[in-house]
Each structure stands twice: as C-alpha cells, then as structure tokens.
Amino acid sequence: MARISKRTYSRYTQEAISLLGRLVRAGRVSRKLTTQELAERAGISRDMLYRIEKGDPRCEIGATFEVAAIVGVSLFEPELSRLSERNQAMDEKLTLLPKSVRRRKLEVKDDF
Hints:
This protein is mainly α. The chain has a single domain (about 10-95), classed as Orthogonal Bundle (434 Repressor (Amino-terminal Domain)).
C-alpha cells in the first residue's frame, strides 16, 4: 500500500490562494452568477468551483485562472494587450538567459 504524503504550502502561498478564492467569489456574486452558471461557463464542476472559492491549492491552475477571468479578477494585467507585451518582454529576457541550469562542479584540489 502506497503512502500518500501531504503536500505542504508556504504561508504566503496559502494566503495568496485564499485571497484569489475570495476575489473570485466576490466577482461571481457581484455579477449575480450562481455557482452552477459560473461552473458551466468555465467548463468545470460546481465542486471544483467551491474548492477554488475556498482557496484549495490543489485546484488546476488553468481552471482557476479561467474562473478568475470570467468574473473579472485581474491576475497580472487588466488589459490583454498589456499582458501580451509582458509575455513578449519575458520571451526576450529568457532568450538572453542560459537554456538550462547546471550545478557548478566543485573543483577538486588534489595537489598535496
């Protein structure tokens, strides 16, 4: 029988996910959407929506971001064009960085 280890999350992560869930819920209520309506629009189950609104860190990130977008929660930039610009800027930055990261080899000092 395999042991299931419980994943732990930092306090910062827990707080951020909790805030995102509350923002989603507030956006849903302010737009007068029922949980069923929002879940259907996002293509997820009501249970998944409940978990997102409760701040469950195990929810799929794509589903969480889609729900946030539907109810108007801005995650990075309020405008799509600005988000595209930031993506392009990150592509340029990543082009300048090494393709991979390797551990530095420890220099062996064997001259006695």
